[in-house]
Amino acid sequence: MKARRSLASLVCGLLFGVGLALAGMTRPQKVLGFLDVAGHWDPSLLFVLGGAVLLATVGFRLVLRRGSPLLETSFDLPTTKTIDIKLIGGALIFGLGWGLSGFCPGPAIALLAAPNSEALYFLPAMLAGWWLYDLAVRGSKRRGDS
Fold it and tell me: Where does the sequence pass through the membrane (predicted)?
């Protein structure tokens, strides 16, 4: 069963990476053009966004009708719907990083297949950010913060 889950993860990751590349999401200038609403705005990524929202809306409704996922015993869904400072802060940091660099983590990882110099600067910075977050969370748990 573990081998089937690993294979399914690999296939899904490859499919996701190909989709990101085909949509132009691995090209920072394309993403920055979409985010530049006050300048030379490129609205073409709206089709990517719209397709993702439509697919997720239909897909989640169909998949969640099942009693469990195909390769797991239960669904692992969020248990809280609370919007707190950690969620807002994380969204702000994510948005600022994406807006400044033109890279989102998924497309940046997809670029490992065809690396460019910008991605080679972004990926270590992204990993450092994850590592710093992990340190902060572990430190917070040791102090008993929530």
Answer: 47-64, 85-113, 119-137
Within 10 A of 133 (CB to CB), how many other CB atoms are there?
Answer: 12
How many other β-carbons are positioned within 10 Å of the β-carbon of residue 28? 20
Q: Is residue 91 in a domain?
A: yes
Does the structure show a pLDDT above 70 at 145?
Answer: no
**Domains in the chain, number:** 1
Count Cβ atoms below 10 Å from residue 111 Cβ, excluding itself: 23
Which domain does 128 fall in, by range? 2-46+78-140
What are the distances in angstroms from CA 18 to CA 13, 65, 88, 101? 9, 28, 30, 21
- 6 assigned to some structural domain: yes
Q: Quick one: CA dihedral 79, 84, 86, 87, positive or negative?
A: positive
pTM: 0.67
Instruction: Give the count of alpha carbons within 13 A of 17, CB side only.
Output: 13
Q: Do residues 43 and 128 lie in contact, with contact meaning Cβ atoms separated by under 8 Å?
A: no
pLDDT tens per residue across span 51-97: 999 999 999 999 999 989 888 889 988 888 899 998 898 899 888 88
Q: Does any domain span residue 20?
A: yes
